[in-house]
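Structure ticket #2291
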Amino acid sequence: MDKQHLLIFLPSGSANYALGQAYVSKLQDLLTQDYEVTCLHSLDRSTLSLLGDFDVIHVFTLWHRSVLHLLHKAYRLHIPVVITPLGDLQPWVYAQHQHSYEWLKWKKVIAKASAVQVCGKLEEHSFQQLRLNARTVLIKNPILTSLVTFESVAQATGKLYRKVIDSNVRFSITEESNALLCGTIQLGIDDFMLRDHEQCRKLSQQWPLLTNEQWRKILIYATDEHVDDYLSLGLERLSISKPELNVHDIDRYPLPWKYPEDDLPSDTLISHSILVRSKLSENVDKNEVGERKLVIEMINLHHETENGHVPLRHLANVYTTLRFTPMDEDRVVDIMKAMGLAGFAQKVTKKLQKTLRLPDGYAINMRH
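Resolution: structure written out below.
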């Protein structure tokens, strides 16, 4: 496994600095085998400008403005963050801050953390009472108890880093990896695109250059987006072997939203709106099979967009309909306009052209 870049931050002005320093220094030494570790005790502009180079950030202690500043920056960059309060959220400490103006800011950054590590049963219970973040992990502090060793704590902490990295691949996957994934998914959907020899050559050259970590992220992302079957078929058509990795066996936190796992419905409406159903019946004849299928998919996709998140698989479903289902484009344009979906359909079409490389001849022009 490729080494990941880890930033450990323990502000020198924090109340628990002495305790944290003894913990962090030993932890840093033991983690260097699997991580490129940078340990800092203060922040400057140069550090913040390089923050995007880190795969995970581990912050020790709270109530220090530099910690708040670092966390805000990390979240803007979508970097996974682990927080170890070192007792800073125990009732007698928390009581000193809960009525301050800053407390609202702290609540938000704690809630956004990929995980919160507590060091004892009492601290765990106290933190759970606050109901700030359910992603809590108990890893005891070997300085405070002889029941654990630094080696076992380092191993548990490393597993936690791996878990939060794997749980946040949707934010860390690069544009290049996403383009490679989507290009290969297109081949899995549309074998006619194998005739694009230049594109196939590029894809075939890029896959073998991936590191194990890049492969891991792509496979996790494809599984989350329910396009792993399209990816597998595309790789097979390119004669590319993928690593043996069962994504479902990887220890991860659940996605913050739940994707529908099935294909985008193309014969029934998700919405129970009587108005939408009535407009569909008024504007689409029963014999307009292809047009009806696409319009229903667009209505359902719009409903998903308005009420949650759309998996990449559902965009692939619309690609498949546009590419392989006979329909009258002029009629589709008229129906979309009558349904009030012309603008949305135009955006979806552009998205399909950008991500899944929908050929121009199959893109619907709503400006007709």
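Closing remark: The beta strands are 4-9, 35-40, 56-60, 81-84, 115-118, 136-138.
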